[in-house]
Write a structure and sequence with these properties.
Radius of gyration: 19 Å
Helix content: 10-25%
Distance between the termini: 43 Å
Structural class: mainly beta
């Protein structure tokens, strides 16, 4: 099976109702079942808002034309290796084309933070935003757990692109990368590609960890190995939180304030992380060493965030009076 990373899960404190529309499980033709591909949806979405305001819970969204119609508001998700849309968006597309947009007997398996399930797909001829053009594909159709966005824009087609998210100006641009170095006043964070994911080496307190850069995730989630390492150094009280993924499966986690997160020349203070034995960490084989996904609660603290796939780096301009310190001794 091929793996595809998309994006969405809802984090809520225990005892708080999570109002997420449910959808009937589609009937799957047995002849199709054996040919299902796999899509991994790994975004996390707490109910609070981050500084960015692309959708109502604070992630970056892009105005995407699908088959020349729209634009549709789709969350830019660097943790997703395939795009997807909501059920409502599929209905709008069907009405716009005066046809049934759902491909008959076409389905795919979606794997999320908390589980996996089979969903129907929609066939499209092309998608475009900025200098990004994607050809013919089938888009998974998911329950609306995107907080108001109409889908997610995955990383297919981004590997030679430069993404500039200017949070102060509320502007997103996607252009072809020409290997531009970081502008004056920016700091850089080196990245590497790991199974299609953007990964940085960070320190959470004194614990070194792999950090997945996930612009589609609203919150930051850590694995149990990271939690245990931190608890040995900084025992602390925790709160329980539930995580509901796009498959509508629920897992619980420990929500606590983490020590400073060190990006090299940047230090982030006061971050909360939800820790748990999440389904997706197991799927990635990321349970034996400290790891976390960095969401928009961290990334949205910057003034400008540039992700350059050609240079394999983030270029960051911190906000004045942000929780980041620059050029300090470790």
């Amino acid at each position: 099976m091929s793996g595809i990373l998309l994006g969405a899960a809802l984090l809520v404190p225990l005892g708080v109702a999570a109002l997420v529309p449910t959808a009937p499980t589609p009937a799957i033709d047995p002849a199709v079942q054996e040919e299902l591909t796999e899509i991994i949806v790994q975004t996390t979405e707490p109910k609070y808002a981050a500084p960015t305001r692309r959708d109502r819970i604070g992630r970056i969204w892009a105005p995407v034309l699908i088959d020349g119609k729209g634009p549709y508001r789709m969350v830019l998700d660097t943790g997703a290796n395939h795009s997807a849309i909501t059920e409502r968006t599929a209905q709008l597309m069907a009405m716009a084309s005066s046809a049934n947009a759902v491909v008959e007997k076409s389905s795919t398996r979606v794997t999320g933070f908390t589980g996996s399930m089979v969903v129907p797909t929609v066939h499209v001829n092309h998608m475009e935003v900025g200098e990004l053009y994607l050809g013919e594909t089938n888009l998974p159709v998911l329950a609306d757990v995107f907080g108001g966005a109409q889908g997610v824009l995955g990383i297919e087609g981004l590997f030679d692109k430069r993404i500039v998210a200017d949070f102060g100006a509320d502007r997103l641009t996607i252009t072809r990368s020409h290997g531009e170095p970081a502008p004056r006043g920016f700091e850089t964070v080196g990245l590497r590609m790991l199974n299609g994911l953007l990964v940085a080496d960070v320190y959470v307190g004194r614990v070194k960890a792999k950090a997945i850069i996930d612009t589609g995730a609203q919150g930051t989630v850590g694995n149990l190995k990271l939690r245990d390492a931190l608890n040995r150094q900084h025992p602390r009280n925790v709160q329980q939180q539930e995580i509901m993924g796009v498959t509508l499966d629920v897992q619980s986690g420990d929500w606590l304030q983490a020590p400073d997160v060190d990006f090299g020349k940047l230090l982030l203070r006061g971050i909360h992380i939800t820790f748990g034995d999440m389904y997706l960490f197991q799927h990635w084989n990321m349970t034996d060493e400290p790891a976390l996904t960095i969401g928009m609660d961290m990334l949205g603290s910057f003034d400008v965030l540039i992700i350059d796939y050609t240079r394999h780096e983030m270029q960051i301009r911190p906000r004045p009076f942000s929780p980041f310190d620059r050029d300090r001794d470790r």
